Amino acid sequence: MNKYAIAIHGGAGTITRSSLTPDKDKAYRDALEQAIMAGHSVLQGGGTALDAVELAVVHLENNPLFNAGKGSVFTKEGKHEMDAAIMCGRTLEAGAVAGVRSIKNPVKLCRAIMEYSDHVMLSSYGAEEFARNHAVEFAPEKYFFDAFRYNQWTEIRDSDIFMLDHTENAEKKFGTVGAVALDMEGNTAAATSTGGMTNKQYNRIGDTPIIGSGNYANNKTCAVSCTGHGEFFMRAVVAYDVSCLVEYKGYTLQQACDEVVMKKLVDFGGEGGLIALNTAGEVVLSFNSEGMYRASKIGDEKTFTGIYKEV
């Protein structure tokens, strides 16, 4: 049987043991376990990497613990604007959305764009119109309301401060979810989804929907999903940079991730992390922050879940 694997993340940042109660720690680990096992079951049954990453991300989007889908943070206007992307490593086809509202699962809309349009990225009202035409599910505003997210917003809504997610430090919270997978046919895929920044203005868009910055998949090299301060990840073209180091310089996947996450990003102030895998079934979970919600499972091996930086 060919090797198959999947990895997921639920955001990175200043996540320390002291910042989570035992109950909260368990809740995050349980959520990661459920999401990765959903994606893994697709692969185990001979399904595609695309189906696996989409399903895993749907599970994360449906959980208010994570800043994506149902758990998306509030904008300056008190609304929810979501970004997402999905990419096929076999064909290099991709679909992405930016600044969409009321879409229950943005990753599903990305899949529809990839399969039923001649475009890669759609935004705002146009993306929502496409969703209506292709029976992508919408949800009412109340579906996206979460008391914790609302309280986060009310603390800063009268200021010009924006806030990322998952940390005790308001300046270092990176909330995004993502998945990468390798199926039995040797194909890879990546999907990423986010609610962006709390109190963001001007329809700000991050790295998540930008192919090559926050999301990328190529069978020749690797599949990558990122989480971090999007402005830095866009400027560093992080996901594609990892792929390029593998393709053009012959780096191992671990070496490429370390070079980009632990050196390049750090050198100019970028914080966050990524998950990556290749067709050999190698998985890398790399981050330069205090923690990253993450999980991985290779074939029938034991599932790994982690939150904090390993000592």
TrEMBL record:
InterPro entries membership: Ntn_hydrolases_N, Peptidase_T2
Keywords, ordered alphabetically: Autocatalytic cleavage, Hydrolase, Protease
Superkingdom, natural source: Bacteria
Gene Ontology MF annotations: hydrolase activity, acting on carbon-nitrogen (but not peptide) bonds, in linear amides; peptidase activity
Keyword Transferase belongs to the record: no
Site for Cleavage, residues: 175-176
Binding site for substrate: 204-207, 227-230
A GO biological process held by the record: proteolysis
Residue positions of the active site: 176 (nucleophile)
CDD domains attached to this UniProt entry: Asparaginase_2
Pfam families to which the protein is assigned, alphabetical: Asparaginase_2
Full protein name: Isoaspartyl peptidase
